[in-house]
Amino acid sequence: MLASVLNSRVAVAGSLHVVRAFVHLRQVISAHGNLAGRLSRLEKESFEHGKNIRTLFEVIEGLILPPERPRPRIGFKQKPK
What we know:
Largest sheet: none
Mean pLDDT: 76
Distance between the termini: 93 Å
Radius of gyration: 33 Å
Number of domains: 2
Strand content: under 5%
Order of helices and strands: HHH
Number of helices: 3
Low-confidence stretches: none
């Protein structure tokens, strides 16, 4: 687009670089087409593992931390009627 607006060697060279970058990107994507599917599967698996790891840490935290004891009431004890 730049070369169509500006008629200079720099504009033409810039447009050529942009086109070459897109051609290279298309070649990389076509050469590694299965890579996108594998990344998607890996992302789903890591999400499942993340949930399992989070649950594991919650259980471990529950075992490490002492259970909360009920606090004694402060004040005078009332006599039962």
